[in-house]
Write a structure and sequence with these properties.
alpha/beta; Rossmann fold; six-stranded parallel β-sheet; single chain; 4 domains
Length: about 700
């Protein structure tokens, strides 16, 4: 349907047109509390379009989303609405020039102001994997990996630092909240994070969290903050319930009084506390902005009435929230089922039997989803799907950029874009046979001493195994840095790496195809820097494990974590493991706030279903004991969320069954550290390093 012809309901219309009669469109702060399936994106698109049609300058509208795809979809919808109302063509790509993720918008603004921040304008963006590797190197240099104490692994160190900065709390407080057993290591962690900040400054790198902290720091600065505030009249934030305290600080930095601010979200879908997201941003919005108004969306257009009844029962159990009760729906349908089975093997068989039964009734596999709390909960089901040769795709698994050969390819591009990035330079050099860390360090030192001229390496004798490739390697470095060589240089880089893949990997042909796809994707970007920024800020996600390779099939079952399914919907949804310790997770029941987030996660799972919802509860679980003791089954307690209020909305079914959960009637139917630079207003690198120099946490 053309977005411009969609008829808004009264609640959506009120939200979309709020404050349009305010002089200069400087309306009071607006909070749109949108229940699941109530047309949040449609309402936000109409809100932006109404502002533009009322006279707002699109170039002075800043729109924050949580994915690039969401920003592109909103821009397309806004263009369609304006085109329908104005009767002329609107360019979707140009209508919202300042729309994108927090990180992408921060990158643009920080790069624009690099000279007054004391940054190299060609600074690189360190992705999560490279940040982890750099932290690992620093752990070893600081002696924290010598085995004297059990120091956190690099990935956990990265998580701790990221959580601390995004939660905007001292390190000791973050540890007390999430990792209390690490409190004795607080000072060592602080030293490592300080060294991390210094290393990034030396290599002219910023990581994800630095981008947000940099933008917040700029907004706090009197001159820079005022400069940024003068650029935008309106700020809109999608999925506001998923923002962190640091992101909320950015929002307040742009619009301190809230005039011109619109936030959209559902407090009952706030499920990213482990990333430092705070539902308080949504709940406390009226306290942060006393003039704020709230518009509530409650008319659901996704799920059947019985599924809405269950969702409302979950809402009624919540300890606090913005009052709302979902109404409307897509008509009547069967009640959600609670299937009680003997154990996890029986649970897997019950799911597969019902999946196949729904297929026989005309429901495609891709319209069915199994949603789990954790990817580890898929194991039994994956075995059963493999045994029955049912193709599936898995979401919430491996990321493409974790593959070594892809990271090798990107190291060449990153070093060409930012020659001071020694992490990428070392990885690039170590692709050559016989080259190790010692020679790579020598080569990078010589490069730096020559002002980063690749030809300075021509007189450096390479290791014997690399001699035959050395000239081609140097020629490639020159080619990658030649102005105007993009994107043709990509094929040259791929051709150089393919023979190296053949030496290193048994599956070199498949890895080579990955590089071919990467080259095709890179060619769609106007510059190397744009491509690298897009990958760093929003990396593609791979499919993880697959049974009966879905590339050979035109249909597949969806296996997903609940977190990864947010924003999606399916005709049929299965939610297994309604057992205490699984839902809610035993790792997230240490406080009332954690339990509430687990309840919200359950609500998200339930509201993904359109017409059929099947919950499953095994009576026993297999326990893997310590060595020397036998494994055995233990009794599984039902989830604490299966209260009498919820059970009243469920049809209880016992046994595995193979009828897709149909009733009898249904079965009969057919279906750093450098001097200040001239013009610098704010030394950003010093500010980032200072975050970890304020004494013991």
């Amino acid at each position: 349907m053309n977005e411009g012809t969609i008829e808004l309901d009264p609640q959506q219309r009120q939200a979309a047109t709020f404050g349009l009669d305010t002089p200069g469109l400087r309306h009071p702060p607006l909070r749109i509390a949108a229940g699941a399936g109530t047309g949040k994106t449609t309402t936000l698109a109409h809100r932006v379009a109404e502002l533009i049609l009322a006279g707002a300058d699109p170039a002075r509208i800043l729109l924050f989303t949580f994915t690039r795809r969401a920003a592109e979809e909103l821009a397309s919808r806004v263009a369609a609405i304006c085109r329908d109302r104005l009767g002329r063509r609107i360019d979707a790509a140009a209508i919202l020039p300042w729309s994108g993720t927090f990180h992408a918008m921060a990158l643009r603004l920080v790069r624009e102001q690099a000279s007054v921040l004391g940054l190299d304008p060609s600074f690189g963006v360190l992705d999560r994997i490279d940040a982890r590797d750099l932290l690992d190197q620093l752990r070893r240099e600081l002696g924290f990996a010598d085995g004297r104490v059990r120091f956190p692994p690099p990935a956990l160190c990265l998580e701790i630092g990221s959580f601390t900065l995004n939660a905007a709390v001292p390190l000791a407080q973050a540890l007390a909240w999430r990792w209390p057993h690490l409190l004795p290591l607080a000072e060592d962690l602080r030293r490592m994070f300080a060294a991390f900040a210094a290393s990034k400054a030396r290599f002219a790198l910023l990581d994800y969290d630095d981008l947000l902290l940099a933008l917040a720091t700029m907004l706090d600065h009197p001159a820079l903050g005022e400069r940024l505030r003068r650029r935008f009249d309106h700020l809109l934030v999608d999925e506001y319930q998923d923002t962190t305290p640091l992101q909320a600080r950015i929002v307040r930095g742009f619009l301190p009084d809230g005039r011109g601010l619109t936030v959209v979200g559902d407090d009952q879908q706030a499920i990213y506390g482990f990333r430092a997201a705070s539902v308080r941003n949504m709940l406390d919005f009226p306290r942060m902005f006393p003039q704020a108004q709230t518009c509530t969306l409650t008319t659901n257009r996704r799920s059947s009435q019985p599924i809405l009844a269950l969702a409302n029962a979950i809402l009624a159990e919540a300890r606090e929230g913005i009052p709302k009760r979902l109404v409307g729906g897509i008509g009547e349908g069967p009640r959600p089922q609670l299937v009680v089975v003997a154990d996890e093997a029986a649970q897997a068989r019950a799911v597969v039997a019902r999946v196949l039964a729904f297929c026989e009734r005309g429901v495609r596999l891709r319209d069915q989803a199994v949603l789990v709390r954790s990817v580890q909960h898929m194991a039994w089901l994956e075995l059963e799907l493999a045994r029955r040769r049912i193709p599936y795709r898995k979401y919430g698994g491996l990321k493409l950029l974790e593959a070594a050969h892809v990271r090798d390819f990107l190291a060449f591009l990153r070093h060409a874009d930012n020659p001071r990035d020694r992490l990428s330079g070392e990885r690039m050099l170590c692709q050559l046979p016989g080259v190790g860390r010692a020679f790579a360090t020598l080569a990078l030192d010589r490069l730096e001493g020559s002002g980063f001229d690749p030809l300075a390496l021509a007189l450096l004798p390479p290791p014997a195994l690399a001699r035959s490739l050395w000239a081609d390697f140097l020629d490639l470095l020159v080619r990658l840095r030649t102005p105007g060589a993009w994107p043709d240089c990509l094929e040259r880089l791929r051709a150089f790496l393919v023979p190296l893949l053949e030496r290193r990997y048994a599956d070199h042909a498949e890895r080579g195809r990955d590089l071919e796809q990467l080259v095709l994707a890179a060619r769609t970007f106007p510059t190397r820097r744009d491509f690298l920024a897009a990958l760093a800020l929003e990396p593609p996600v791979g499919s993880g494990g697959e049974a009966a390779d879905p590339r050979r099939h035109d249909d597949w079952l969806v296996l997903s974590t609940i977190h990864s399914a947010k924003g999606r919907e399916f005709e049929v949804v299965f939610v297994p493991w309604l057992v205490d310790g699984w839902i809610p997770s035993d790792l997230a029941t240490g406080s009332a706030a954690e339990i509430e987030e687990e309840r919200r996660l359950f609500y998200v799972a339930v509201t993904r279903a359109r017409r059929r919802l099947v919950l499953l509860r095994p009576l026993a679980c297999y326990l893997h004991s310590e060595p020397g003791r036998s494994d055995h089954h233990v009794r599984a307690l039902p989830s604490r969320f299966l209260t009498p209020r919820l059970l009243a909305e469920l049809e209880l079914v016992t046994g595995e069954g193979e009828e897709g959960g149909r009733t009898a009637d249904e079965r009969s139917e057919k279906p750093g550290g450098e001097p200040a630079k001239e013009g610098m207003l704010l030394d950003l690198a010093a500010s980032l390093r200072a975050m970890w120099r304020r004494g013991p946490a």
